[in-house]
Design brief:
Elements (H helix, E strand, L loop, with lengths): L2 E6 L7 H15 L3 E6 L42 H11 L2 E9 L2 E2 L1 H14 L8 E7 L4 H13 L13 E3 L3 H4 L3 H26 L18
Parallel strand pairs: 1-2, 1-3, 3-5, 5-6
Antiparallel strand pairs: 3-4
The structure holds flavin mononucleotide.
Amino acid sequence: MMKVLMLNGSANQNGTTFAALSEIGRTLEQEGIGYEIFQMGGGAVRDCIGCGQCSEKGCIFGDDDRKMPQEGENTGNGTISLVNEFVSKAKAADGFVFGTPVYYAHPSGRVLSFLDRVFYSSGRNFAFKPGASVAVARRGGTSSSLEVLDKYFGISQMPVVGSTYWNMVYGRKGEEAVLDAEGMQTMRNLARNMAWMLKCFEAGREKGIALPKAERESRTNFIR
Ligand SMILES: Cc1cc2nc3c(=O)[nH]c(=O)nc-3n(C[C@H](O)[C@H](O)[C@H](O)COP(=O)(O)O)c2cc1C
């Protein structure tokens, strides 16, 4: 069964982002597509420092901590690399949805720290697989947040899945999100479009349509 890997870019495991992604998941299942919602949790997430030490094994840093910090607890010494765990699931996934709450009119800092490391170390694993981003907010900043997340797709040879509106849901909390009828409808239509695209790609593979070969020779840094 084909599968869509979704990322909940909120520390809130059962909030608005989760409500939006869950609606997508339910519809995907109706379309015969499996899904998983990957929870980042509330622990510390390291950012990318451009060290260039990414390898076949992925990002070298393993000090993310997915636990929700308890009062007075130091969570800075976790051993699970959230990034590499996500990448290993991404290799097996057929499509992606990246969900974020809006923080000051941009995606949450933690989702950007996370995705920078995912794509810098392992972006090749996403090529030719469809992606969609989803932004949730109480009131403003969804369009600018979606623009930022959509950038990961464009540079990674990923077809972008659209819906009947931009992929946004409004609410301060999860229980408000489900009251956003148009937002939820947008999520369901997005899921149907994702399912349709995945089935078309599968049919293409079965017909023997080869993946395009990318040129990589020219990289201009503007200082020559
Ligand atoms: C630090 C911070 C900044 C926020 N900035 C915005 C904002 O710019 N626009 C907005 O509409 N909501 C803003 N919110 C509200 C959240 O986007 C909103 O409550 C969202 O539903 C939370 O999603 P979640 O439950 O998945 O975490 C902000 C919340 C926080 C914690």
